[in-house]
Amino acid sequence: MSKITSSSHNIIEEWNTSSSSKLAITAIISQYPSISTKRFDSRFKLIGRQILSAFVPEGFPNSVTPDYVPFQIWDSLQGLSTYIRMMLSTQALLSAIGVGEKSATVIGATFQWFLRDLSGMLGGILFTFYQGSNLDSDAKMWRLVADLMNDLGMLMDLISPLFPSAFVFILCLGSLSRSFTGVASGATRAALTQHFALQQNAADISAKEGSQETVATMAGMAVGMFLAHITRGHALAIWFSFLSLTIFHMYANYKAVRCLSLNSLNGERSSLLLQHFMETGQVLSASRISSEEHVLPLWLSSWAPKKFRPLHRSVHLGVKVSSLNHTHTMDLFLRAGSYYKKAKYILLERKGEVDIVMHKDSTPADVLQSYVHALVMAGFMDRSTLLHDESESWMNKHYDDFLKKLRLSGWKTERLLSHSVVWKANWLVGSSDEKIK
What are the Root UVB sensitive protein C-terminal domain coordinates in residue numbering (predicted)? Predict the structure, then answer.
């Protein structure tokens, strides 16, 4: 074993490794003539880095997707606007309940608050029941809807003092509206966190987002308290402040979701990608698709993407077999015995739309394939009468190449984000003991 003598001139370098692509030397520790340390970072820079680490994920910016920063900036601004308006609406709500009034009773205020919370709890359960399975596939849209419903809830609180006879009803409507916000916002946030996480660091991203939200909350509460104080008793100033902040809030939310470049496949993104591929043989990037897809609910926007026809609106996944009429049931038997003997799905053309009947043993890959096949059939609807022949021929020639190019462009092709396929089927062809699987 060799010994290190006192005359040895050894050096140890200290590097900052929080970002693997931006390594930086921070200090040199030298042994000769005596142990000494030379630092390259100032104390203020070191403190700043430690403070920043409380608000951004470990390894930032390489541990998150490129759209993380612009989304968080706009998301923080909309959160700030929300907390400022919350002070105004809460002040109006407490005034309507009777806080500060000698004639108000504790039991009366408690009962009104109880009804408010109860309606919110029931609304959250109902919203989850009807829309829970759609939140993953349309995360952008439901993110906007959640904040729109939150705005509506705060508006109800603000107008409640104006209608004393209908106060409880308006109070419950506002709580019901905000309950939708809680469910949709929480669920879509989970989906977006998974999207941002490049290094399996979803928990870290979620924790740091909590720190960011806390700062926005404290700033919003401080500004909101000041605004509530200076506008107290001035109805016109209160309404002007509230409506101005609401407009900015919705604009910030729209900009936030527009920043997102999701690389998962849902109905609309699959439709846009497929149509471009069928025309050019190339696959669009996630950032390009994000500029084409809808982020507003269909009942708020009457326009469609200019370059593409929304084929996904003509496709119905997981159709219930017993809901088909006699003609389409006979067509189902015909398809099961011809085109789809070995497939894990059956496509039916019905009044210009395509129904997908999924096999009971179908996998997520089969669901994606069936959906792309249905989109191809919908695309041939206006220019061919042999829909099954031409769509099957296209799938045999191009589907594998389409999937390969999707993966090379960074798209996730493991599954299709859609509602849960509850209804499935099994078909037998020929003798009763012959199953098609």
Answer: 314-384
